[in-house]
Design a protein that fits this description.
This protein has about 160 residues and is an alpha+beta fold. The chain has helices at about 5-15, 30-40, 130-160, and strands spanning about 20-25, 50-55, 65-70, 75-85, 90-95, 100-115, 115-125. The protein starts with 6 loop residues before the first helix and ends in a 5-residue tail after the last helix.
Length: about 160
């Protein structure tokens, strides 16, 4: 059981942290298809580089625990997320509740036309390392935003091509 699984651990992890990242993309597909593609947890590795995602507990819906492991060579980061709200096809909320990555995240899909959906992915991470983490964040943030935006663009292409969901 991770630290974030207990009620107090999840409650503290759910508080927004100072490390904020937002990425947005327009997908030429209906919101239902976009949302279904995003919540196909096991296939997220197809559009998030170097990452393997799996449902550890539950069915992928509310209350489920999802694990994402991003590995480049021997270096790996494990991200545990508790799914706290699912409102298809509009919104998915998670709380990152692992040892290293903690904080709330939300994905919102807004239908802009019959076959056009805006996706906004927003994360508020707690910054590790105390004051040093806060000092390092402005340097790390542009890379985080760039990586998240590139992943969403790859996701959009896969949905538009009918490869997701």
């Amino acid at each position: 059981m991770s630290r974030g699984d207990g009620p107090d651990g999840l409650r503290s992890a759910a508080q927004p942290g100072a490390g904020e990242v937002t990425a947005t993309v327009i997908v030429n597909a209906p919101a239902e298809r976009v949302f279904a593609g995003f919540t196909d947890w096991d296939r997220q590795g197809e559009w998030i580089p170097f990452t393997r995602v799996r449902v550890v507990e539950g069915d992928g819906g509310e209350g489920s625990l999802v694990e994402a492991v991003t590995a480049i060579g021997p270096a790996a980061v494990r991200d545990e997320m508790r799914v706290v709200r699912v409102d298809p096809p509009y919104e998915l909320q998670v709380v990152h509740c692992g040892r290293m990555l903690r904080g709330p995240g939300v994905l919102r899909c807004t239908q802009m036309g019959r076959d056009r959906t805006q996706v906004v992915w927003h994360e508020w991470f707690h910054l590790p390392g105390g004051p040093a983490g806060r000092v390092a964040w402005p340097v790390l943030w542009p890379g985080s935003k760039f990586g998240l935006t590139q992943a969403l663009k790859r996701f959009a292409r896969l949905v538009e091509q009918g490869k997701l969901p």
